[in-house]
Amino acid sequence: MKTLSPIKYYLAEDTIDNKDIDRLISWLKGTPRLTKDKVTVEFEEKWSRWVGLKHSVFCNSGSSANLLMYYVLLLSGRLKNKKVVVPSVGWVTTIAPAIQFGFEPIMCEADKDTFGLDLEHLEKILIKDKPSTVMMVQVLGVPHKMDALLKLKQKYGFILLEDTCAAFGAKYKGKKVGSFGDMSSFSFYFGHQMSTIEGGMVSTDDKQFYDLLKMMRSHGWSKDLDKDAHNALVQKYQVDDFHTPFVFYEAGFNLRSTDLNAYVGIGQLEKLDWMGQRRTENHTRYKEHLGDKFYIQRPEENCVISSIHFGMLAEDEPQRKRIVKALVENGIETRIFSAGNLGLHPFWFNRYGKASFPMADKIHHCGLFLPNHPSLKQEDIDFIAKVVLDAA
Q1: Is pLDDT of 2 > 80?
Q2: Rounded to whole angstroms, what are the CA distances from 318 to 106, 107, 169?
Q3: Strand partners, 108
Q4: Is the distance from CB of 289 to CB of 381 less than 8 angstroms?
Q5: CB of 53 within 8 A of CB of 203?
Q6: Residue 341's domain spans which residues?
Q7: 185-222, pLDDT tens digit by residue?
Q8: Are residues 251 and 293 in the same domain?
Q9: pTM check: above 0.90
């Protein structure tokens, strides 16, 4: 029986290095408060400045960030209906909260260039179903066609949720992804552009959304709100002063992260631009080797890609099997492209039937990932690409 080669090239590596750990140990020796406190607020403020939005709310995962966005929409009073367009290519928790909260999700085909929402299909849905909300994904750090998407937003008046969980650091015509949506989510999970061990963020320019996000993150109380917003609720409901810290105005969650995670995040944020640049350089080198031989994502001009992996589509399933076999034999970790077409997963088709689309299905059956992280060298990229080309 043939044994698998040990992994030499991991698909992702931790962005938390020895310097980060030494910095954390030094901070811990000062016996700081570890649960959510002032460091969380500092991280949120620094993140808002980095991404270019007014407000940010740190939570325990990118999946929780998506959940918060959906639930805040329900509470906002702004929805004309509960119909929401969701992407066929993304992650389960891009869609799961819509199901859990009783939205009516309508799945959209993938764009042939960026693998984000197919805008022709999206417009047909907008005309036919008139959804209040569109959830988009900046797929794998390749910016979507935001000018055209925002024109549709202006024309049809939907609320845009921007899932940037695995894409931040990418730019569309000079503007960072994650700064286009009415609310945008980010994930700081292992292997993403930066890590807080576990963690996520929601960012927005909208004060109502911001206040609701803070309340829903922490039990539905008002303790995290600014003085004016807190006092407005106290006066509205005529709350006794003694009770004010522990009055629950909404049925919230406990999705908080900690100051420990936030402290790690502040250190990661200091080197995020450098780590993003390295991912861009790696992606470009992969593209030089493989871009003319395989189907890959291609953004519009004047865009910066910041990918957590390099995605590519094989010609067909047998070719993908050959490539995957060769990668594994050479100690190169790989996996399918994201989750493929989410419309072909049981969580979806058990409820709504299979959602099959030409482009999303091609990604599902032929897509794979190659390693991309800051520690890879040029010769590593060259070797991995050669293994792919030889196998194909």
Answers
A1: no
A2: 32, 28, 34
A3: 87
A4: yes
A5: yes
A6: 273-391
A7: 999 999 899 999 999 999 999 999 999 999 999 999 99
A8: no
A9: yes
